[in-house]
Amino acid sequence: MKSLRRMFQFVKPYQKNAILAMVLLSGVVVADLLIPRLTQRVIDEGIARQDMRMIVNTALLMLGAAILSALFSIGNTLLSVRVAMGAGADLRSAIVRKVQTFSFGNLDRIQTGRLLVRTTSDVSQVQMIVQMSLRMLTRAPLWMIGSVVMLIVTSTQLALLMLVLLPVILVMIWFFLVRARPLFLSVQRRLDRLNQVMQENLAGVRVVKAFVRVEHENGRFDQANRDLMDENIKVMQLLATLIPTTLFFVNLGVVGVLWFGGQLAIGGDFTVGEIVASVNYMAFSLFPMMMLGGMVGPLSAAAASAGRIWEVLDSAADVQDRPRARALSDVEGRVAFEDVCFSYNHGCEELVLKDINLVAEPGQTVAILGATGSGKSSLIHLIPRFYDVEAGRVTLDDVDVRDLPLDALRAQVGIVLQETVLFSGTVRDNIRYGRPGATEEEVIAAAKAAHAHDFIAAFPDGYDTLIGQRGVNLSGGQKQRIAIARALLVRPKVLILDDSTSAVDVETETKIQTALEDLMVGRTCFVIAQRISTVLNADRIVVLGRGQIAATGTHTELMASSSIYREIYESQLGNSAP
Q1: Cα angle 295-145-79, degrees, rounded to a multiple of 5
Q2: Cα–Cα dist 162/76, whole Å
């Protein structure tokens, strides 16, 4: 429950509304508790004495109390909803903002499906309990305490009967609460799995159909769905016994009041009105126990969800600004790798990159070749600090990139990732994603440089064309060229192209490379490419093998000194060297 209590810090911005909701709820309880006392007055003073005026006046007071109770309850509900919705919205924003601070390493460990469940289902559980706390969870103890006081005032003997039943019911509720929490945690985990399978099915629907694996994927989803169903059934089976058991004790208390109160009334020590009032107060004092019993499920679910949410909010980003990080005033673009070692699992003996020493002078183009899994993408991801090195250091203008603020560092680095990602919105918005204030002329210039302007202009809406989800209405080559334009518009000092022309034809690639040669002037460029024709004119070509630099030099130098490079060249361009 500690994690759930911590959630109420999100209620603090709305504490005025929360306090007012509590005040109105207190008014509801007072008005409700007043009605049994007025009922006793009608019976003992009105009906017994046949005083019609007393009956009418008391009935009007009861009507007034009922109206006040209804009005206070409506006000309490409106304020509770406002507080809960506001706290829920702030909590979702906090999760998303936290996720945005995560490095690639954090996101590698936390699956997208799990984050989605925490932002939606888990937040909804907490949001619901916040609202209930300002209504039922607060009303129940107030109602119970007020009923006990009124019952003691009415009959001390009958109050003792209730005080015997209360601990029994509270212990029972606590028992169910402790048993239910791990079950609800298991339900949320099953929901994680269901969302993960569903997300994979939707994202890979074309692959599923292409390989005729629809039945297989349906089976995976059905299994995850059945697992979730089974866990929900276990929870409901546990809670199914709670409400009837609680109701049994409530009815037992009412029977006790009628039994002992009846005996007192027969002996002349108790009036009929007092018996009626005592029955009402007994029900009022025990009925909140039923309310709390009904809250065991939501409370357990919210506690489990709160713990899962705090797992995200308490996570520290693997990559963070150092306390004394300062931005460079004038970046030239010299990038150096000094004895760099890297592993995706810190402390792991199996290194992805080992003893990398490499320097890219300002304005140079460095091409990186290597087989799949040789560490090409891992190498360039260290420059903008998507990951941090295990050993050694990466520098920008002789300053360790870890000593630079992340925002300032990444503002100097333009990158086109291997997997092209576009956002819903217009083509224009996607191109100027890194520079929202860019002019129309700058957007068009970047598009022309990436050889994207012609096909964009051919769209009926031109640059106002809406891009579908994940760029579904664009070809792979079109998406890559828009991504290149987006990177160029930032005007970076360091430009990284991670296999960024793999989805375009050779002719278009040649045009893009020609255009990029002009744009690369004054910029340090790292180019990862599968086609060796893309990197022939690079100032330096680096061949990676098993996480180490196998060879480095110009094309001419490598043709003479590196058998690996010659094999790559000959396999793609033939046996004759230029």
Answers
A1: 55
A2: 29
* Of the candidates 342, 403, 244, 299, the residue with the CA atom closest to the CA atom of residue 548: 342
Question: Nearest Cα to 36, choosing from 65, 73, 56, 70?
Answer: 65
Strand partners of residue 498: 528
Q: Which residues contact 195 (CB under 8 A, 6 or more apart)?
A: 113, 114, 116, 117
d(CA 158, CA 265): 12
Handedness of CA 367, 370, 372, 378 (dihedral sign): negative
Structure tokens at 329: 């005033």
Q: Where are the alpha helices (DSSP H) in 204-241?
A: 205-210, 214-240
What domains appear along the chain, each with residue ranges and CATH number?
Answer: 2-313 (1.20.1560.10), 335-573 (3.40.50.300)
In which residue are the tokens 């209620």 written? 11
Query: What single-letter amino acid sits at 31?
Result: A
Starting from the edge strand earliest in sequence, which strands make up the sheet with 335-342, in order? 353-360, 335-342, 391-396, 399-400
Question: What pLDDT does 201 receive?
Answer: 78
* Rg, C-alpha atoms of the chain: 35
State how far the Cα of 217 lies from the Cα of 486, in Å rounded to an integer: 36
Position 458 scores a pLDDT of 92
Torsion of CA 112, 115, 116, 120, to 10 degrees: 180
Main-chain dihedrals φ then ψ at residue 334, nearest 5 degrees? -80, 120
Residue ranges in the chain modelled with pLDDT below 70: 1, 111, 113, 137-138, 158, 162, 203, 206, 265, 268-270, 274, 283-297, 347-349, 470, 500-505, 507-521, 574-578
Q: What are phi and psi of 413, to 5 degrees?
A: -120, 120
Distances in Å between the Cα of 344 and the Cα atoms of 178, 387, 499 are 38, 8, 21
Strands (DSSP E) contained in 323-463 are: 335-342, 353-360, 365-370, 391-396, 399-400, 413-416, 425-426
In this structure, are strands 524-528 and 540-545 parallel, antiparallel, or unpaired? unpaired
- DSSP code, position 315: P
CB 420: neighbour CB atoms within 10 A? 22
Name the residue among 112, 120, 99, 105 with its Cα closest to residue 197: 112
Q: For residue 489, how many other CB atoms are within 10 A of its CB?
A: 22
Amino acid found at 417: L
Q: What is the pLDDT of residue 508?
A: 65
| CA distances for 572 relative to 351, 410, 577, angstroms | 30, 35, 12
* 107's tokens: 């996101």
Strands 524-528 and 494-498: parallel
In a 10 Å sphere around its CB, with 0-12 CB exposed, 13-18 middle and 19+ buried, how is residue 76 labelled?
Answer: buried
| Cα–Cα nearest to 577, from 560, 564, 562 | 560
- Give yes or no for a contact between 531 and 573, defined as CB atoms under 8 angstroms apart: no
139 alpha carbon, distance to own chain's centre: 32
| Integer Cα distance of 524 and 120 in angstroms | 43
- Euclidean distance between CA atoms 242 and 133, whole angstroms: 20
DSSP 114-169: HHHHIIIIIHHHHHHHHHHHTTHHHHHHHHHHHHHHHHHHH-HHHHHHHHHHHHHH
Give the whole-angstrom CA distance, residue 138 versus residue 8: 14
